[in-house]
Design a protein that fits this description.
Blueprint lengths: L9 H29 L3 H11 L18
Length: about 70
């Protein structure tokens, strides 16, 4: 910042820096995702499917609860 943004100006220089950083981050994230899912097994797939299903919500007056339990 001592010498300013150079011939492109400070905003364009900052934008180029941010874009380069985002591209690097995305590249390494994609490598990590491939490594993580490369050896995926049936158990892993089932776990992800269970995590994504809709939650089971019981009402207060559910017959699964005893009458005196509030």
């Amino acid at each position: 910042m001592k010498y300013g943004g150079g011939p492109n100006g400070p905003i364009r220089t900052l934008g180029q820096y941010m874009l380069g950083s985002a591209a690097t981050f995305g590249f390494f994230m994609s490598i990590g995702t491939v490594i993580r899912t490369e050896g995926s097994s049936v158990t892993t797939s089932e776990t992800f499917a269970r995590a994504r299903r809709r939650p089971l919500i019981l009402s207060r007056h559910s017959p699964a609860r005893p009458e005196g339990d509030q």
